[in-house]
Amino acid sequence: MIVSASRTDAFIEWRTAVVDSRPVDFGVGGHGETVLFLHGWGLSPRAYGSALAAVVHRGSRVIAPALPGLGGTAELDRADRNFEGYAAWVTRFLDAAGVTGPVTVVGHSFGGGVATAVARDFPTRVSRLVLVNSVGGGVWSSAGGQKRPIRERPWWNWCVSAMVEAVESVHARRIPQFRLDEFAFNALRNARGVWQTGNLARTADLIDALEEIAVRAMPVVVLWGADDHVIPRTSFHAVCAALGDPEVREVPGNHNWLIDDAELFGQVLTESLAGRAVSAPVLSPSFAFCSTTRIAQ
Predict the structure, then answer these.
(1) Alpha helices of the chain — where are they, by DSSP H?
(2) SS3 content of the chain, % helix, strand, coil (to 5)
(3) How far apart are CA 50 and CA 186, in angstroms?
(4) Is 168 helix (H, G, I), strand (E, B) or coil?
(5) What does the alpha-carbon distance between residue 113 and residue 107 come to, in Å, rounded to a whole number?
(6) Are 73 and 24 in contact (CB under 8 A)?
(7) In what order do the strands lie in the sheet with 220-225?
(8) Which of 12, 251, 89 is nearest to 3 (CA)?
(9) Who contacts 180 (Cβ-Cβ below 8 Å, separation ≥6)?
(10) What single-letter DSSP state applies at residue 194?
(11) Contact of 211 with 137, CB cutoff 8 Å
């Protein structure tokens, strides 16, 4: 079953929690294993409505908050605007939403960096970590192919990469108008917050955190859109190397593939959580140090 945007409300209910005496918009739906979903930069969980609904339809309970500074949620204090501060906020949100016990934490892009920090700093709250085209690899490759620290990646390179993806999506008629509208809304309402979270995502180096998670033998799944222009492939490889031997599933699509193809996201995530082999054709691994399954359309 393909869950379209028009059917999202049949699976996801939008509610408000109070965290630090401030309202937080969040989506919730379904029954079964609880999946906490943390969204990407410049957006809110509403941009992922169809993707979340696809996961709910396949038998999981999903809860997805709007992270601080985005989606109408108030900013963190300046001293807490780092991944550690966001991770601590996530635990307070879970408490406010009445979520007890460890949960599967799924993070996309910037949300993947937050999810990584949650898994490192609050391991008793996390049963499994799923990183979807996540920030945190700490390296990028210049035009000449030389690996450099991610903090040296210039803004213009990051912005151009994001623009290339947007143009490709528009050309393929995959990009939903509401995603553009939501980003514009967030930028207009809280330009500083969007800028700050963007800079945090652009310079994220979470290799130490990922290595700590690997030492604890926490189950980790890495999902990767093979045509990502926003997160450098060298960064993706670095994430996998730091984790040691995570389950890696590579799918068609760019950085926002889970928004563009909600049904594929629901399928791949649910099969990963259940420990089942993917039902799509398997291609050859693209690199040697991770056990990688590539899924073709």
Answers:
(1) 49-57, 83-96, 110-121, 155-171, 177-189, 191-202, 207-215, 233-243, 257-260, 262-274
(2) 45, 20, 35
(3) 20
(4) helix
(5) 7
(6) yes
(7) 13-19, 22-29, 61-65, 34-38, 103-108, 126-132, 220-225, 247-251, 291-295, 282-283
(8) 12
(9) none
(10) H
(11) no
Q: How far is CA 209 from CA 9, 53, 70, 112, 284, in A?
A: 36, 30, 24, 12, 29
pLDDT, position 5: 38
Question: 80: burial class by Cβ within 10 Å (0-12, 13-18, 19+)?
Answer: middle
Residue length of the chain: 297
Token pair in block for residue 243: 């984790």
Q: What is the DSSP string of 115-141?
A: HHHHHHH-GGGEEEEEEES-SBB-EEE
Local confidence band at 183 (pLDDT 50, 70, 90 cut-offs): low
pLDDT in tens, 230-263: 888 899 999 999 999 899 999 999 999 999 899 9
- The pLDDT tens digits of the residues spanning 189-223 come to 666 666 677 788 888 999 999 999 999 999 999 99
Residue of 63, 36, 49 lying closest to 128 (CA atoms): 36
pLDDT in tens, 124-176: 999 999 999 999 998 877 666 678 777 877 766 666 666 666 555 554 444 44
229/109 Cα distance (integer angstroms): 12
**CB contact at 8 A, 154 and 199:** no
**Where do the domains of the chain lie, and which CATH numbers do they carry?**
5-295 (3.40.50.1820)
pTM over 0.70: yes
Residue with tokens 């594929």: 264
For residue 77, what is the DSSP state?
P
pLDDT at 35: 97
Q: Is 254 helix (H, G, I), strand (E, B) or coil?
A: coil
